[in-house]
């Protein structure tokens, strides 16, 4: 981008690119160029770029707390937490204190109380709500009014007179409905939902089976707390897959991949020592057959062949197990084979 252009002109040029493309370039820029880019992008766009970045921690560390507070305020609460988690506790608290939207702060605090392994930690408050007593005209006005601040408009969530979850309404059905039509006739009351304390591992198979765009998350009293979108479910599935795969590599945390050599050695040395001992036992056993080997040297060829085949078998078994893990079928498969 030419230096002669104004920030507005540069912003218009950058708006032609997707936020993911900008984030890919942002990760390769030096600190000075990043700060210049921060000045060009608006708050909402910069927030999207940060979420697409592979190194959120490094990016947010370069942004002033006041600016970062404005960025987080423009995000959904679940995305805001993802950014705040990259800061130390003191810095995160300082940024939250700068957020002027009290409702946003309350949503962030509420979501942060959930454990990472329950579905409540992944829900968002980006959705539109109507009442089951509304007329078609009233419901349409609420949808139009809420569409400005909410992206998830294809599925409309319906509450009853006690503010409890009642069902959902497809936007298409609402659009084609006549003003005098009974709204109750087009509301789906058998829509699947999850409880906020449901484990993510238990929820993901059900999400895959239903194949819907979004799912309501309720508390034990039936109050609608938030929703899980298809994108949220996809992100969670990918995170779970990475976690399961890391366990096979002896890694308990994703960050351990980037740790130093001493940390890696400390983590893996017990297993390597066990393999060393087993190898020594195998070699010791082979010494008892020296006479056979001396009389028939070609047997050594078959020894290496057998050992190689056992390694190939182990590799194939590992690949099948990892695939079953990704499909959440490993428990059932283990039971069948034991």
What are its keywords?
338 residues; mainly alpha; three-stranded mixed beta sheet; 17 helices; 58% helix; 8% strand
Q: Brief description of this entry?
A:
With 338 residues, this protein is mainly alpha-helical.
Instruction: Provide the structure class.
Output: mainly alpha
The largest sheet has its strands arranged as 1-2-3
Q: What is the helix/strand order? A: HHHHHHHHHEHEEHEHEEHHHHH
What is the terminal separation in angstroms?
A: 63 Å
Count of DSSP strands: 6
**What is the strand content?**
5-15%
Biggest sheet record: 3 strands, mixed
Instruction: Compute the average pLDDT.
Output: 80
* Gross geometry: extended
State the share of residues found in helices, binned by percent. Answer: 55-70%
Q: Uncertain segments of ≥5 residues (pLDDT<50)?
A: 330-335
Radius of gyration: 28 Å
Counting H and I runs of at least 4 residues, what is the number of helices? 17
Structural description of this entry:
With 338 residues, the protein is mainly alpha-helical. 58% of the residues lie in helices and 8% in strands. It has helices at residues 7-14, 19-26, 31-40, 43-52, 56-60, 65-73, 77-84, 89-98, 102-112, 136-146, 171-176, 200-210, 230-248, 261-287, 290-295, 299-326, 330-337, and strands at residues 129-131, 155-159, 165-170, 194-195, 214-218, 224-229. It starts with 6 loop residues before the first helix and ends with a helix.
Topology:
Layout: H1 7-14, H2 19-26, H3 31-40, H4 43-52, H5 56-60, H6 65-73, H7 77-84, H8 89-98, H9 102-112, E1 129-131, H10 136-146, E2 155-159, E3 165-170, H11 171-176, E4 194-195, H12 200-210, E5 214-218, E6 224-229, H13 230-248, H14 261-287, H15 290-295, H16 299-326, H17 330-337
Parallel strand pairs: 1-2, 4-5
Antiparallel strand pairs: 2-3, 5-6
Helix pairs in contact: 2-4, 4-6, 6-8, 7-9, 12-13
